[in-house]
Amino acid sequence: MFKQGENMKTYKSLIEAKPKKWSDIKDRNTKKEASQFLKALDVGQVLGYSVEHQEFSIFDDEKDFKKAQQGSKGKAMQWVKVEGWIRHGEAMNEAYKPSFNFKAAVKIGMLDKTDEKPILSLKKKGWEIKEFILTSKGFELTVHKPKLGLETTFIEKRPDIALQVADKKLKK
């Protein structure tokens, strides 16, 4: 029971803590939108994100960004500097994660359990399946070799054939 006059926090304020830095922001759509802005920045420009208004703003330099943070208006906007993890052709700091899942592909009927042999062979050779999708041209298999930064694509009419061709053509 609460006594009259006690401060009671709302559910929203308990669940949605205000981020203090860019790494605190977890929303994928916001990060995706930020990557588009970061690609368009000129050298020296800074991308800021207003937590209060949930929108981006481009500043000419670091000095302008610092000025925007000052004063009562700046504090009310709660500016967060968007980190440059994509800026100027730099790779993302996040680890590379392949999106292909063999069990899911079997479950939806794209592959059979017997198709695992070429996948395991590719892994032994150091190749990872980055994407395996159906396009208008056929089944498109994109493989990636992280150690060397190589990437290649195979397109075949059937998914099992795409795996077999990739396994035969790719070497260690």
Describe what you observe in this structure:
This protein has a three-stranded antiparallel β-sheet, sandwiched between helices. The chain has a three-stranded antiparallel β-sheet with strand order 4-5-6, with helices on one face. The chain has seven helices and six strands. Residues 5-15 and 84-96 have low confidence and may be disordered. It is α+β, with helices and mostly antiparallel strands and 172 residues long.
Which SSEs are present, and which pair or pack?
Elements: H1 11-15, H2 28-40, E1 46-50, E2 55-59, H3 62-69, H4 71-77, E3 79-81, H5 102-107, H6 116-124, E4 128-135, E5 138-145, E6 150-156, H7 159-169
Antiparallel strand pairs: 1-2, 1-3, 4-5, 5-6
Low-confidence stretches: 5-15, 84-96
* Largest sheet: spatial strand order: 2-1-3
Provide the β-strand percentage band. 15-25%
Please tell me how large the radius of gyration is: 24 Å
* Number of DSSP-assigned strands: 6
Helix content: 25-40%
Number of helices: 7
Secondary-structure element pattern, one letter each? HHEEHHEHHEEEH
Query: What about the largest sheet?
Result: 3 strands, antiparallel
Intertermini distance = 68 Å
The 3D shape can be described as: elongated
Q: Could you report the average pLDDT, rounded to the nearest whole number?
A: 77
What structural class is derived from the secondary structure elements? Answer: alpha+beta
